[in-house]
Amino acid sequence: MKQEERMTATKKALELRKRIKGKKPKFVRQESWRYKRLKQNWRRPRGIDNKMRRKIKGWPATVDTGYRGPRATRRLHPSCYREVLVHNSDEIKGIDPKTQAVRIAHTVGGRKRAEILVAASKKGIRVLNLGEIREKASEEEVETEEKEEVETEEIAETGEAEAEDKKKKRRRRTKKR
Question: How far apart are CA 100 and CA 124, in angstroms?
Answer without folding.
Answer: 11
